[in-house]
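Recap quiz, item 2
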Amino acid sequence: MDNILDQYKAVRKLTEDICAPLKKEDYVVQPVVDVSPPKWHLGHTAWFFETFVLKPSLPGYREFDPQYNFVFNSYYETVGARVVRTDRGNLSRPDVDDVYRYRSHVDQGMTRLLETTELDAALSEIITLGLNHEQQHQELLYTDIKYILGHNPLLPAYTRQGVSYQQHDATGAYLTMKEGIYEIGFEGTGFCFDNELGRHKVYLHEFNISKSLVTNREYLEFVEEGGYRDFRYWHAEGWDWVKSKGSAAPLYWHEVDGKWMHYTLSGLQEVQPAAPVCHISYFEAAAFAAWKGMRLPTEAEWEAAADQFNWGERWEWTNSAYLPYPGYKRAAGAVGEYNGKFMVNQMVLRGASVATSAGHSRKSYRNFFHPQHQWQFSGIRLAE
Amino acid sequence: MDNILDQYKAVRKLTEDICAPLKKEDYVVQPVVDVSPPKWHLGHTAWFFETFVLKPSLPGYREFDPQYNFVFNSYYETVGARVVRTDRGNLSRPDVDDVYRYRSHVDQGMTRLLETTELDAALSEIITLGLNHEQQHQELLYTDIKYILGHNPLLPAYTRQGVSYQQHDATGAYLTMKEGIYEIGFEGTGFCFDNELGRHKVYLHEFNISKSLVTNREYLEFVEEGGYRDFRYWHAEGWDWVKSKGSAAPLYWHEVDGKWMHYTLSGLQEVQPAAPVCHISYFEAAAFAAWKGMRLPTEAEWEAAADQFNWGERWEWTNSAYLPYPGYKRAAGAVGEYNGKFMVNQMVLRGASVATSAGHSRKSYRNFFHPQHQWQFSGIRLAE
Amino acid sequence: MDNILDQYKAVRKLTEDICAPLKKEDYVVQPVVDVSPPKWHLGHTAWFFETFVLKPSLPGYREFDPQYNFVFNSYYETVGARVVRTDRGNLSRPDVDDVYRYRSHVDQGMTRLLETTELDAALSEIITLGLNHEQQHQELLYTDIKYILGHNPLLPAYTRQGVSYQQHDATGAYLTMKEGIYEIGFEGTGFCFDNELGRHKVYLHEFNISKSLVTNREYLEFVEEGGYRDFRYWHAEGWDWVKSKGSAAPLYWHEVDGKWMHYTLSGLQEVQPAAPVCHISYFEAAAFAAWKGMRLPTEAEWEAAADQFNWGERWEWTNSAYLPYPGYKRAAGAVGEYNGKFMVNQMVLRGASVATSAGHSRKSYRNFFHPQHQWQFSGIRLAE
Amino acid sequence: MDNILDQYKAVRKLTEDICAPLKKEDYVVQPVVDVSPPKWHLGHTAWFFETFVLKPSLPGYREFDPQYNFVFNSYYETVGARVVRTDRGNLSRPDVDDVYRYRSHVDQGMTRLLETTELDAALSEIITLGLNHEQQHQELLYTDIKYILGHNPLLPAYTRQGVSYQQHDATGAYLTMKEGIYEIGFEGTGFCFDNELGRHKVYLHEFNISKSLVTNREYLEFVEEGGYRDFRYWHAEGWDWVKSKGSAAPLYWHEVDGKWMHYTLSGLQEVQPAAPVCHISYFEAAAFAAWKGMRLPTEAEWEAAADQFNWGERWEWTNSAYLPYPGYKRAAGAVGEYNGKFMVNQMVLRGASVATSAGHSRKSYRNFFHPQHQWQFSGIRLAE
């Protein structure tokens, strides 16, 4: 889509389409701190455009409601909050209709801006960032909706239509990559996040990397052969996590009358042996690899080899911590808080998942989460 | 109302009338553990009639949904929950429409029962208990709705019509009660809870008790003269509570530009000096009394004197712990869990409040909460 | 002992005799917040005499070390602490020898005072309070030493000599007390704590009270018949306590190869069926009574009947919350913090235990602890 | 020292020499979870030789006390503990004399073994590992003793002799390293840990690295210009750490009457402007670097440049997460738990400190701690 207004409309519409199957009540709850209420995602992505685009750049723009600033701001301490502090999951107001009105108000402003203004480079860049930001929240909407409904005792389906998962079996095939100097990092002219910049050389030693993702069948062997009960496969912190959480299988798996079921966006279903395992923490991915006598690839290995295998079904945990590339510089101002300040205690995931918006990811994309997180559509690719 | 079906309809309707001003989103949230979502109150009071009346006593009654049993059961461990455990505040389903359908289904059953059945004493008793139970939840709906909206940064009003508070000023008048034997506990033939039964004699020493409640004007002096900063007025656990919570005024009070405002069901308003102070914990009530060089009455003193003063605007903290009367026996079965198991670590409140349903309370009524709780419409009557 | 100097010397010596079997290392540790290191008890009881007697009343008294004031003060916030805050269980200094030197310094001051000064009533009273205070800490030394050694995996004995426990079996005999007016509270001319004062009338209804304490044999039936697994016998908060703590027997009981053992001050020994059960929380005492279809006595019932049964082997949980007697007034100043500020959320125990210093307790004595505490030598007497 | 028995004796003696200034009480306490009681370090290092050398390899060796196995085992769940679980900081027994007797017993066994046995490679290796392990605990003894005494309100000195710190001022000089391929990892024939093995190539881009450590003078500027109050310099988790801990200066620094003092092993002293800053967390090191507009070096950069600057006064935080080198393999058995299982959520420190035992560290040594830890003698070297 070469027209930015069309792009804007398409991205914004998709966000709302994702929420269409929800009931108003589903928009409100926040069962754990990492999951945000859908209402909040809708408001926050509008707030981004209002704050970074419309207020500074659209003459005569009227702020929708000054109080929304601290309700939907994910970045800053709630400065200016005179009376009460806020807590995302306990907010029944602004209500869902208000939030859609807010989005509509912002959309009108953006349309007016995009129809009437010659965008300079900076403005164009921040709008593109806003669209990529909204696409990230589209994926979070899927993961958070799944968490909200999948932790409800009625296990309601998000959609009866079914969300298609590609069937595929493990081929067992490995790719051998030769020792030498490789270049990684973003290359080209399109959009990328600041954390991908600074394309640079790395020296890799010879390694093998699997052409396919680990399947449920393979992971089930690990489960059934006692992988969750043997400390030798786990990091010390991973073992603490297993014990304190009582983990014995991936998130959303339930053993019902001796059969392994899992909650999907279409409701509770039997685990499909040939599908790639999903909703795995880094701790589980690393333990599985250790049990196999293998390891996870580093992010440089992954990127160097990525053209030679299919990826995009699961975010793939790497064995790389999320750290700055050589020469990394934070952007100035609030936007500079986007990535750099999270560069500690998180692990990099590469690829994309079935929940990632089309065209959003790329080979150099660096996703990152804490090692205990399972609620993303995350899986495993082995290396050695 | 002498007809039990009319009574039933009136009580059930009032519950839904209380919820009428809410938006769907307001029904869902649970900002702290003691506050339940309105949706839960609606479902739980229907569950009571379904479980203790309809399922055992109405031939052919069809249970609305077997899963509602553990969603709306406040009493038991969630037995039978095979797959996931539940958490009141994180439940977007059953949704609000479902819950009203559930109530309607139960109401149809109850109407059929009451129109066609000659009630025996046991059935009559459990239905009356159910109605009193629902009236308790009517008051909790007011307190919980106030908490939900009063902790939202937008401070939305529950109703624009205004909730009238009787104005009255402290008279300073005290009543002297003579030393001697008094009788307390329920007397008469109507309904009461098991914890009021066992009317018995107590020996009271001479005491004075105020004819009026402590006003905001008086309480404000305590606030402004440093009552919250001087440990000498507080129980040791009360002082810890003040420090850890940073308390410096009653719940819902906010000092805005040097003026004391408080959140009411009609929104943020100026504190009225002549109104009785409200939303006070036992710790605060006891500290205020100590600052005055006085004390709170015991529940026996309160009941002995209650015919000689007006009560009903605020639940009045007493200096009595919630303990069984001589000869107290728990009822058999699940209903026996109603009161007895809470008889530790809670303090008795007497009277009623502006949020109590008409006719629900009586002189012998024993309300009880933990000493730190403020979200009830609770106030102070002094004694010495 | 009619001479106060002799009394002083005897009490002080007993405290040190209790500590004589300890190793230096035992003086230091604090395994849980309610247990204080023996070193702290030794210093704190000296600090009491230094602060409330010697500094105000002995001309020329030289404070041992100004910093000890906040190390050994149990009452106040650590005012004056300029550099670092303290934590009883992490203090290796002052070391044990320093603390004994501190005690000796205070003893010299007290001896000089008592040999040279005509005591006025106020001074006499505070010294007597100090001795009773030290006797309370003598019992705490036993309970805390038992906790420290009894939670060490080596289960070392405190003394090989054996601590004698009177053998006695349940007689099953009950005493019937007639309905009527009784007087309770301290009577006489000796020492008592402020919480016992205000002898007053209470009206009691007829009740039966056991002439003997519940034995291990009886309690073991409760354990073995599933008392800890049936929520019906427990307060709601008691049931939470059982589940979160995993309690299944009294403190210090261990099932070893199918036999019930318990840690005693002489080391691990078999549980003696005929001895009164010990180290019971209020929650356990109340649950046991409910299982028996009986109840615990109130403190007024206990005191009214106490002349007609033997007591003194176990602190006996009553079903009375710790609250002020009619007309209770706190003493002025720091000493006034002794009792009144604890009058919430605790239950009264009556009697005395095998660990109580001879002559320290009396019929009107009101001991008090939170309902979950087990580390005192506490037991059960039933009533109905 | 070419004789392994002499080496053994020298290392073991140094451990005890470090403890010589302690009082018995100092051996026992554990103020925070990361700090172990000195008694535990003494026992644990003896347990290492008993468990991995004497029991498998010395015929006729008599275990000192089978219960010590779970008291002094840092690695495993306390299997076999039948009666009570243990907690390092609450153990008054085994007492200090017992622990020294244990060490002496082990030393006799080791002497007998080393005097009578021809060591094979495996045995030689494990003994060398044991000595390096003990040297690591020598440094931990210093850091833990400093923490124990430095958090005591009396701020007692460990030694009056003074621990000499080299004075040196920042030169401001930087070293430029050329882009290209470097090799890192252990090289040579002596001892190293498994995490240093797998010498491998890395590709480095041109960088500058400081020839000297950041001094107190420089760090003080950061403190006084508000570095701890400006979120922009901090990782998000670092900023949470600052706020929750209330950090405003390095560990052990106290502002006393307007002057910066710090606790040292010789007691409280003025902060010396020219000494390298010490007791800095990774969060602080990274924030300081950001404030300077610079960054921390990676561990590969550090190692590549290390021959060209002086190091050894402070452990130097790098911007590298602790992760396996290419081809890293855990050793088999219990010893394999030494390093690999900690490779998540920790950052690498390079160099050595004034508290490191002579000869213990080397250029390829990889030390690692969590980013919030301050109690090591850690400092900052800048890069860009």
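Chain B has nine helices and eleven strands.
Residues 170 and 212 of chain B are 6 Å apart (CA to CA).
End of item.
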